[in-house]
Write a structure and sequence with these properties.
This protein is an alpha/beta fold. It is built from four helices and eight strands. The radius of gyration is 15 Å and the shape is globular. The N and C termini lie far apart (38 Å).
């Protein structure tokens, strides 16, 4: 179960990201490095106070995505699960409605002007239709947007559930290999 989002202000290290279309987000000035994060212990090494990175958060980690002064440090958010109850609990739905940064969803979500539909069809036709988890979507989007460095923190899929250590890990490894290539 998700917990209520603690009060926050945005970190001064956040990028200036904005929604410019149904599936398009821009960052001005453009940053060439992105840090993708999960919630495992290695997320502590994130470059929280390095403004050369965009930092991408996901799901219900809003209380973890904080800089050293407890300010929300996320430039984009990913909620690649249907934005409806009972799939999402009341705290998830509240975050979906109030998320202050561009938030990718699976379908239009007019309750938040920062919501954008994740461009899965475009990425599937550009690359490959191979998705098992949000991290795979994020890495593919980072490749597509031309980031020069993709840092991955807090992803310890090898130690997770059976699905995480088999299906999700294999998919993430594929996308990381494509990025490296």
């Amino acid at each position: 179960m998700s917990k209520k989002c603690r009060p926050y202000e945005l970190s001064p290290y956040n990028a200036r990201t904005r929604v410019v279309g149904e599936s398009l987000v821009v960052c001005e000035p453009r940053r060439l490095r992105v840090a993708i994060t999960g919630a495992a212990k290695s997320m502590r090494s994130l470059p929280w106070e390095d403004s050369s990175y965009e930092i991408w958060g996901l799901n219900n980690f809003w209380n973890s995505m904080r800089d050293g002064k407890d300010r929300l440090r996320a430039d984009r958010w990913f909620e690649i699960h249907p934005p409806t109850q009972p799939i999402q609990n009341q705290h998830d739905m509240e975050w979906l409605r109030k998320c202050p940064v561009p938030i990718y969803t699976t379908e239009p979500f007019p309750e938040n002007t920062n919501a954008v539909v994740f461009p899965v069809d475009r990425l599937s036709s550009t690359f490959r239709n191979y998705w098992s988890c949000t991290f795979a979507y994020q890495i593919a989007l980072a490749i597509d947007e031309g980031f020069e460095e993709i840092a991955v923190h807090g992803l310890e899929l090898a130690f997770g559930t059976q699905r995480e250590c088999t299906v999700e890990r294999a998919c993430v490894n594929y996308w990381l290999g494509l990025a490296e290539g």
